[in-house]
Fold this protein.
Amino acid sequence: MTAQGLRIAVIGATGTMGSDLLSVLEARSFPLAELVPAASERSMGRTVELYGQSITVETELSSLRGLDLVFLCVPGKEALEWVRAALHAEVPCIDLSGAMEGAAEVPLLVANLYPDPADLLQPVIATPAGPTLAWALVLEPIHRCVGLRRVVGTVFEAVSGAGRAGIESLQAEAIALFGQRALPEPTVFPHGIAFDCIPMVGEAGEGGETEVEGAMVTSLRRLLDAELPVAVTAVRVPTFSGTGASVAVEVAEELSAAELSELLAKSPGVALPADAMPSPTIREATESEMVLVGRIRKDPSSERGLLFWLAADPVRLAASNAVRLAENRFQVG
């Protein structure tokens, strides 16, 4: 840390997202003069490590005044309280919780998709949820190059999407099954998740679409700046981390599978592993700040249809995007 650096707070520093954010800050040598890690009372007495220093986690942060930036890595309802506190203290904040993702007045930004400098300077900006961010990084270059007519896909979300509680739930169930003991009562998910899949993430509304699916559709349209027909099915799978997706697109102009591969290979934030099939797997994407794409092929059911698979680490992706947005903000300012 340097005297010329920035004073920032990470709210939710001991959670899954907060931990990854701290890791990205260090990996990118983010210019810091002071870090204020904060979390709930459950983290009392804990410390976090950054740049070789052990920093005590604050459980009672009375004011945000004097800070240069706040990263919000806490659940949605709690994040809203911190947004109000940041606005009152006149300290800019970046929301990673999803709480502000659907707010039309809050810029929803992706560092690799050339955000407007004026948006970067807004008092509150939001990064898309990891799965949405992964899709956007792949869909935007396609839409910019040949235009998209329709997007349909299934996203496979790991238990880490429900935070540490989701990870602990899968772990406890797996241990019980291997030990031939009774499964613990589900408290995080609607039923057991170990060695099974749950065909929805969250509760379904009147039309059968879940809040997660609806938010993803809305955010993708926002990020692509298009009223595009999009249909998403979110499935919870028994992996500890990462996300995968099987996506089908229809394009406005002719685009071969080889041309799509060439386009995505040149797109920021996207990588096409050269390994033999069935790469890329969700595990390969763990701790990567890139979206890995494979199985690119023509859709035999559609004249201008294409199919592909993507894998990403949604937590790392969102954390990396937030830090890069912060870097861009202070370069602009």
